[in-house]
Amino acid sequence: MSLADSRTAPGAPLRGRPRSEAVERAIVEGVMKLLEEGVPLAELSIERIARTAGVGKATIYRRWSGKEELFVDVVRAAEPPDPELPGTCMRDDLVALLEQLRQRGVVSRTSMILHNVYAQMKSSPKIWCAYHATVIEPRRRLQLEILRRGQRNGELRTDVDVDVLNDILVGPMLVRSVMRPDAELPEGLSEQIVDTVLEGLRPVSSAS
Amino acid sequence: MSLADSRTAPGAPLRGRPRSEAVERAIVEGVMKLLEEGVPLAELSIERIARTAGVGKATIYRRWSGKEELFVDVVRAAEPPDPELPGTCMRDDLVALLEQLRQRGVVSRTSMILHNVYAQMKSSPKIWCAYHATVIEPRRRLQLEILRRGQRNGELRTDVDVDVLNDILVGPMLVRSVMRPDAELPEGLSEQIVDTVLEGLRPVSSAS
Fold it and tell me: Membrane spanning segments where (chains A, B) (predicted)?
């Protein structure tokens, strides 16, 4: 199972022939262009997007049910790609997961466009819901699956609810990348968080 | 040191005679009333607040520099009070800190008014900044101080940056209470997070 699978999950438009992909790309890039020009999301009508991309409105509606679904694809196109999980051990899979969150945080700080896209998305409950259903929920299901496998393999304690364990592992990186725009996101942070959380925060000398 | 100290930190209005406190309360409650009636933050002018509270605009401006500062006091009045830290050991102080975050999360789910207040606050960068400076930053400084004391006392590992340790401890509760409105916030969660994070996520049998 790879995170990339989640990209073709519910809500993703059906991909057709190569020519169709080029049209989709033109439409997604059209939305990007408008956002880069500072057009607020509320003024991004399908009509305006169609005009910018040089296609008819029907061409857009054949691919996306509406602005929400289209916008989620725009966000995904601007985000770093989902990682291939090494699948060798839970620790390495967790590092790969956190590394994607870290890179997403780095990109959203350095890319004005992605930064704005996130901000606008959060101000629209419908689009936030669509993003949640097609991107965040599948990613979360994958995280929980990795942890359950870790519990089966004896890599993770089994006396705590897997949801709580997930928040303990992913929480620190989410807090840094999403809630604390001033927090550092240095290379090696993913490894540091995963290893520290797995080992515990008590001084090593007092471990029994 | 108690979290309550941070309430009189920079930005808090100077408290005068008892009569003055009653006026302040009337103003804060006036804002609450308007918010409960569904008036959006953007339409909450000082003039309208003054009219609702039955005071003059000057009375408000004598106490708050503007809408931002006033609104932060409204949020603080609606939030659960800051906890008294037991100060006996790092673990108990951390549980008290997380417990306040948990209760804040519970209240913001059950209280429509506080829920709306947070949502509106986040949509206003100026008010969010003011809240950050007067509520979140002092709380964070206190958290870091507790952890540094824990490192000095041998209760916390010293080989990891204290900022990262703080995110590892507070992150899971923040993620639940702020980012995941569907997540459960049961009693005992604070203890469970703190103890699990301190002990580590590896199975107990494999601890060396």
Answer: none
